[in-house]
Specification:
Oligomer: single chain
Number of domains: 2
Shape: globular
Number of helices: 9
Structural class: mainly alpha
Strand content: under 5%
Strand order of the largest sheet: 1-2
C-alpha cells in the first residue's frame, strides 16, 4: 500500500494534478452524459447549457481580475438564447442567434461609457463565441436520432486523447511540446494521444456509428489536432490572465473551462466531419 501511495504521489507531482479525483470526476461526467442522452436528449441540451453558464461564470471572474468588464447576466441570457435556438433551429438557428446576440451585447456595453469599451467588447465577443457558440455544436451532435452514438463516439475520441496523452506524457514525457504555453505537455504525450485516439476513433466509428473504420481513424487524427489546440488555447488564456486554473469546481481538473478546453474546439470539427460523411455517402 505504501508503495502504491508513493507511486501515486510521484504521478501527481509530475502531472500537476491528483490522479484519483480526476478519474472519479471524469467517470461521473461520462455517466451524466450517457444518462441524459439515453433518457431524453433534451436533458443533454440542458446539461450543455448549464456547463456553458458555469464556464461563463469562470471566464467573467477571470477577466474581472484583470479589470476587464463583462456583463455576466447579459452574456448568460445570450447563451441561453443560443442553446434554445440551436436545439430548435439547428446550425442555422445557432448562426442567426449568434449574429443577433453580438450586436445586442455590444449595445448593452454602451451603458458603461467609452472607458475600456474596446477591451470589454472584445472580451464579451470572445466569450460568446468561445463558450455558447462552440458549445452549441455539442447540442447539434446530440440532436439527430443517433445522437447518443454520436456524442458517445465524441466522448471516446476526446477521452482517448486526454487520458492517454496524460498517461504517456507522465510516464515517458521528456521533450516539451510548447514550453512557453504548457510546460507539462510533451511530444511523447502527443504521440500517445495520436496512437490511442486514432485506434479509439476506428473502433467507435465501426462499432458505435456503424461507419468505415478508416473514417474513424482520419477523424481521430483530426481530433488530436483540435483537442491539443483547444488545450493550448486555454493554457495561453490562463498564462495571459496569470491564473493556474480557471476555477476549482472539478477536483483533479480545476474549473469547468479546464475540462471543456479540448471539447469546445473539437465539437465543431466532429460535427463537420459527420456532415461531410453523410453528404458523400
Amino acid at each position: 500500500m505504501s508503495d502504491f501511495q508513493s507511486i501515486n504521489e510521484a504521478i501527481n507531482k509530475r502531472a500537476g494534478r491528483k490522479l484519483g479525483p480526476s478519474i472519479l470526476v471524469s467517470l461521473s461526467l461520462i455517466a451524466l452524459i450517457w444518462f441524459a442522452l439515453a433518457y431524453h436528449r433534451e436533458i443533454f441540451a440542458v446539461v450543455v447549457a448549464v456547463a456553458v453558464l458555469l464556464g461563463i461564470r469562470e471566464i467573467v471572474r477571470a477577466f474581472s481580475a484583470r479589470g476587464i468588464y463583462i456583463s455576466a447576466i447579459s452574456l448568460a441570457l445570450g447563451s441561453l438564447g443560443l442553446a434554445y435556438a440551436t436545439w430548435n433551429g439547428g446550425v442555422a438557428g445557432l448562426a442567426i442567434a449568434t449574429a443577433i446576440a453580438i450586436p445586442v451585447l455590444l449595445i448593452q456595453l454602451l451603458t458603461q461609457g467609452p472607458d475600456g469599451f474596446v477591451q470589454s467588447a472584445t472580451a464579451t465577443t470572445f466569450s460568446l463565441l468561445y463558450l455558447p457558440f462552440l458549445g452549441g455544436f455539442l447540442i447539434l451532435l446530440a440532436k439527430p436520432h443517433n445522437g447518443l452514438g454520436r456524442v458517445m463516439s465524441f466522448v471516446v475520441l476526446v477521452g482517448c486523447n486526454d487520458t492517454f496523452g496524460y498517461i504517456v506524457g507522465v510516464l515517458f514525457g521528456k521533450h516539451p511540446l510548447v514550453p512557453n504555453i504548457s510546460p507539462k505537455k510533451s511530444w511523447e504525450g502527443l504521440i500517445g494521444s495520436f496512437i490511442f485516439t486514432v485506434t479509439g476513433g476506428s473502433l467507435a466509428f465501426n462499432f458505435i456509428l456503424d461507419m468505415q473504420w478508416w473514417v474513424g481513424a482520419i477523424v481521430g487524427a483530426m481530433i488530436v489536432f483540435t483537442a491539443t489546440c483547444g488545450d493550448l488555447i486555454e493554457s495561453a488564456m490562463k498564462r495571459d490572465l496569470q491564473l493556474k486554473d480557471m476555477g476549482s469546481m472539478l477536483p483533479g481538473h480545476g474549473g469547468i473551462l479546464d475540462r471543456l478546453d479540448s471539447v469546445l474546439i473539437s465539437a465543431p470539427a466532429l460535427w463537420l466531419a459527420l456532415e461531410l460523411v453523410k453528404r458523400w455517402s
